Amino acid sequence: MVKNFNLLEESKKIIIAVASAVLLALSLNFFLIPANVFASGFTGIAQILAELTFLSPGILLFLLNIPVAILGWLRVGKSFTLYSFINVAFTTFFLELIPVTNVSNDIILNSVFGGVLGGLGAGLILKFGASSGGVDILALLLARKSDRPIGIYFFAMNAIIVLTSGVMFGMEKALYTLLTLYVASRLIDTIHTRHVKLTAMIVTNKPDELQEAFFREITRGVTRIPAKGGYTKEDKEILMMVITRYELYHCKKLLTKSILMPLQILFRQQEFSVRFARIIRLLLQPFFHSTVQ
């Protein structure tokens, strides 16, 4: 572990975790909380619980993430869980430090800009191999225990948040919550990847070393397919494996090591995770149509 420690790389991850936390805190305290619009995942659940208890969303977010972080440390991966929890801790800190400020009285502006800042924060930390904690870690654990795709758990969690916001504040607020979730998801798509799972296909002449490295670093098995170069006639192998978007950073980092540098890399995207965005678009369309008129 000490041998592979890179101070510059780890410092960069901490800076990214802090920057992401600032964006998430600004999204909540400047836009979503004043407008009673909920964010996605555990942040949205913390907002809901804050309406029912005397605790602040920041404190509740931290408390909700403690048991999940312990499970993630034991079952998902130490590096991923560590930086995800660092992000959660700093998000809690900035939520308590930055005062709740009503920047605009226009709820659509609050929903959109809350989603933009939240999506930027979540996408930034995802791009560097961690997450904003909570439902990300929980969904990974549940997906590994069942045959269901990870996107189902994100959909179920966000559906609960939207329905709860409708019950607590009316269906109009639920629609604004949907708008925030949609904007945030589009920003995450732009910064990181829109797909929850990807298929990596790697052409290499060092299949044994790569297979061992994949299992050691990201705990993934591979399918090995014999191949031959069309021009050189050299024997090679194609290594194929399915990874989650949370493992994309670690996979790319592993493949750029000079000793394991493959001849060709292809990441093919799985399409099932775009359904949630289509559902949101369909639900919001009649609402905005009537608003314009």
Question: How is this structure best described in words?
Answer:
- The structure is a single chain.
- It is built from eleven helices and four strands.
- The protein is an alpha+beta fold.
- The chain folds into two domains: 7-194 and 272-292, no CATH class; 197-269, 2-Layer Sandwich (Alpha-Beta Plaits), CATH 3.30.70.120.
- A four-stranded antiparallel sheet has the order 2-3-1-4, covered by helices on one side.
Give short descriptive properties of this protein.
293 residues, alpha+beta, Alpha-Beta Plaits, 2 domains, four-stranded antiparallel sheet, 10% strand
- The share of residues in extended strands comes to 5-15%
Count of the separate structural domains = 2
Q: Sheet with the most strands?
A: 4 strands, antiparallel
The helix-strand sequence is HHHHHHHHEHEEHEH
Structural class: alpha+beta
Low-confidence segments, given as residue ranges, are 270-277
Q: Measured on Cα atoms, how large is the radius of gyration?
A: 21 Å
Distance between the termini: 61 Å
Mean pLDDT, rounded to whole units?
78
Strand order of the largest sheet: 2-3-1-4
Annotation, overall tally of beta strands: 4
The percent of residues in helical segments reads 55-70%
In DSSP terms (H or I, runs of 4 or more residues), the helix count works out at 11
- Rough outline: elongated
Write the layout of secondary structure elements.
Blueprint: H1 7-35, H2 41-52, H3 57-75, H4 78-97, H5 107-127, H6 135-145, H7 150-169, H8 171-191, E1 197-204, H9 207-218, E2 223-228, E3 235-244, H10 248-255, E4 264-269, H11 275-292
Antiparallel strand pairs: 1-3, 1-4, 2-3
